Amino acid sequence: MRRGFYKMISIICLLTTVSRIDAQVQVESTIDSIQILIGEQAHVTLNVSMKKGLKLEMPQFKRMEYVTPGVEFVSDTQADTSELDNNMIKVSKIYTLTSFDENLYYLPEMTVKVDGKPYKTKSLALKVLTVPVDTLHPEQFFPPKDVQNNPFQWAEWRVPFWLSLLLIVMMFGALYLRKRLKDNKPIIAKIKIIKKVLPHQKAMKEIERLKEEHMTSSENNKEYYTRLTDTLRKYIEERFGFNAMEMTSSEIIDRLNSVDDRKMIDELKELFTTADLVKFAKYSTLINENDANLVNAVEFINTTKIENVPTTETIAPKLTEHDKRSIRSRITIKWSMIAIIILAVLLWMYLVYRIYLLM
């Protein structure tokens, strides 16, 4: 009696354990539409809820394989797993089906294996309808319509339209500034570099010319002394910085009295006195006297010359206030035109991108 009781208890516990294992696996299938037109597609979703860690095998079909006669398998998705409570997971997979025959189809049960044990879903129904065709009025059949353009919406094109107007204005502005820049001639400030001939070099060159023309032996003493004294006057004017060309011989000598070499001043004074006598008193000189005065002139030049000075002079032109304003205006116009061109290019690229998105 007692042994039979324990045996009954063991059987009840075993059945309870099996029921709990079966209760841990739930399989269900749903269809998104039970009615489609020929050629349309229906989607069957298979959901499996089970304990985490169990091995799952879901139905597999080949493309164009018949799930049931008249209903073809098209494709399926990858299994999607989500976490549930109590260490449970839910695995979902979608199967896409289609049919090209009008009929009411019963989709068979789908078998799922969990740890090798099969679990079946419920069967589903799928009704396939055909497109009604009016065979009594064949003249009312029309060919397929062309692709229709989207309706014009001002809200979509408003920004590109106004930006296009702005781009046109910027282009005209750039052309106007280009014309202004072309009309506003550049102020070319040329810097001149002049080679300077030193005063003593000019004087010696003129004296060499007197020698070449043999003016010392010429009978025209007035011309000789006029040219010789003019050469000295120009030299003195450039060398000592006073207007010797407008001064008399005595005034020149008085201004040169600051020079230390009195003998040289006396010789120069004698030369100027002889020149004045020749030019104004018709005094006649001897040839050796002419030569001596020429030597005195050369000696005076060599004694008072300054050699360590620059032989070139840079002359920078002076710009008027109008020229300065013109230069500033030209720079402003040039950089404004460059800025407008850069902005116009960027705006054009943005417009092309916006229009490309709208097409």
Features:
47% helix, three-stranded mixed β-sheet, single chain, 20% strand, six-stranded antiparallel β-sheet, alpha+beta, 359 residues
Explain this structure to me?
- This protein has 359 residues and is an alpha+beta fold.
- Helices cover 47% and strands 20% of the residues.
- It has eight helices and 14 strands.
- It has helices at 2-23, 154-183, 199-212, 221-240, 249-255, 262-281, 287-304, 321-358; strands at 26-31, 35-37, 41-51, 56-57, 66-68, 71-76, 80-83, 88-98, 103-107, 111-114, 117-120, 124-129, 192-195, 312-315.
- Strands 1, 3, 5, 6, 7 and 8 form a six-stranded antiparallel beta sheet that branches.
- Helix 2 (154-183) runs antiparallel to helix 8 (321-358) and helix 6 (262-281) crosses helix 7 (287-304).
- The chain is rod-shaped and about 155 Å long.
- The model is unreliable at 9-21 (pLDDT under 50).
> What is the residue-mean pLDDT, rounded to a whole number?
80
- Low-confidence blocks of residues: 9-21
- Estimate what percentage of residues fall within beta strands: 15-25%
Largest sheet: 6 strands, antiparallel
Class computed from helices, strands and strand pairing = alpha+beta
Q: How much helix, percentage-wise, in residues?
A: 40-55%
Would you count the extended β strands for me? 14
Total helical segments:
8
Described by the principal axes of the CA atoms, the overall outline is rod-shaped
Radius of gyration: 60 Å
- Spell out the helices and strands N to C: HEEEEEEEEEEEEHEHHHHHEH
> What is the rounded distance between the termini?
90 Å
